[in-house]
Amino acid sequence: MNDQVYWVWFSMLNRISPQMKISLIRQYENPYNLWTFFKKEHNPADISPGAYRDLVSDELKKKSYRTLKRTLDLGIGIISYNDKDYPPLLKQIPDPPVVLYFLGNKAYLKNCFAIVGSRKATIYGKNSAMEIASYLAEQGIVIASGLAKGIDTYAHKGALKAGGKTVAVLASGVNVVYPYENKALYSEIIDQGTVLSEHPVDTQPLPYYFPLRNRIVSGLSKGILVIEAGEKSGTLITVDYALAQGREVFALPGNVTSSQSKGTNRLIYHGATPAIDPEDILRLYRSDVKNRTIVPTDMDESEKIIYDLVYQGISDFESISEKAGFDRKEALAVLLSLELKLYVKRREDGGYIPF
Q1: Same domain as 66, residue 20
Q2: What is the distance between the alpha carbons of residues 139 and 317, in angstroms, rounded to a whole number?
Q3: pLDDT tens digits for 66-80?
Q4: Which one is predicted more confidently, 319 or 292?
Q5: Which residue in 180, 198, 249, 297 has a CA-CA distance of 20 to 30 Å to 241?
Q6: Same domain, residue pair 270 and 307
Q7: Contact indicator for 205, 176 with CB cutoff of 8 Å
Q8: What DSSP letter does each residue of 77-143 carry, written as one string?
Q9: Residues 264 and 304 placed together within one structural domain of the fold
Q10: Is 8 within a domain?
């Protein structure tokens, strides 16, 4: 087995959660080491019997060869968790996919902003999704969404209409179009953007996969905008993921009598940023530090180093300290100074984000 086929094999272990997969990779470094260990050793206590059987299954290993061949025959690309091209923001979430399969251009998996919303979109929602996505795409922001009916569809269309880039994250294999009515849009995205999934080729869109898909949409992105959502909309699952990942949440204000705006209005009531002007999103989420609308001038060199790390989406204290090359005491002092100057703020979970 070559390196790629081990990663494909690992992505096919459906009885192991994304969190457990990442834990195993961090412990064993790569799937090959994992395979050889479990073939030689007894099952440790933290692996279920069913998952252990999959780990040592020769049949699954053989299937992974066939899956890799079909993947490559279809021109589908593979990015593993250890690959240098793995999206840096996605790598920071608690449960990143161990493998990403893609069609299109993998370069667009950076500098993303997510636009999501109800499948039962109103004319107001559809027009807003188109206009905002177009505006952001014109400024070089890649629009991420889920290719679902409604708001997702119009977010993708808006980005493409502006000649921009968009990423569609699927709850199926990247060669399985769902919903099928978006087949033409799917093909257009492959030509001008990226279609992405954590699932192997030919995987069908099972209900369980849709919430998992949502964590990738938000995980790729510096922030998310909810265009429309009912009070119990599945879109709010993406918001939960975004908040857990430390992403900024925007919501489009809507008519208080509209059922499709009840969820977004409630998000604003609970602290989401109202999406009044797309320029607000640009100021907060322009990825390229050189293109910031506001460049801080009253920082010393230590503050600039740490501020740039936070601005790039690195939020937890240990990572900030390590990447800055500062000891814990020095990093904490710099972060406190940036807080007092209102350049960064600390979340309830202890992570840091730009103010």
Answers
A1: yes
A2: 31
A3: 999 999 999 999 999
A4: 319
A5: 180
A6: no
A7: yes
A8: EEEETTSTTS-HHHHTSSS--SEEEEEE-GGGGSSEEEEE--SS--HHHHHHHHHHHHHHHHTTPEE
A9: no
A10: yes
95 vs 6: CA distance, rounded Å:
19
User: What's the one-letter identity of residue 340?
Assistant: L
32 lies in a domain?
yes
Same domain, 271 and 308: no
Looking only at the bridges linking them, the beta strands covering 221-226 and 112-116 are parallel
- Containing structural domain, residue 331: 296-354
Cα 170 from Cα 32, distance rounded (Å): 27
Do residue 309 and residue 279 come from a single domain?
Answer: no
pTM given for the model? 0.77
Half-sphere exposure of 103 (CA within 13 A, CB side): 25
pLDDT at position 300: 86
The predicted structure's pLDDT at residue 289: 40
* Closest of 44, 41, 34, 40 to residue 1, by C-alpha: 34
Q: Which helix (H) or strand (E) holds 157?
A: helix 151-161
Total structural domains within the chain:
3
Residue at 183: amino acid letter = K
Within this chain, do residues 132 and 5 fall inside the same structural domain, yes or no? Answer: no
91 within some domain: no
Q: Which pLDDT band, with edges at 50, 70 and 90, does 36 fall under?
A: confident
CB 128 within 8 A of CB 213: no
CA distance 18 to 212: 9
Compute how many other C-beta atoms are within 10 angstroms of the C-beta atom of residue 90. Answer: 24
In the listed set 285, 309, 339, which residue is the last one of a domain according to the structure?
Answer: 285
Any domain includes 88:
no
Asked if 44 and 183 sit in the same domain, the reply is no
Same domain? For 324 and 277 the reply is: no
- Provide the terminal-to-terminal Cα distance of the chain, rounded to the nearest Å: 48
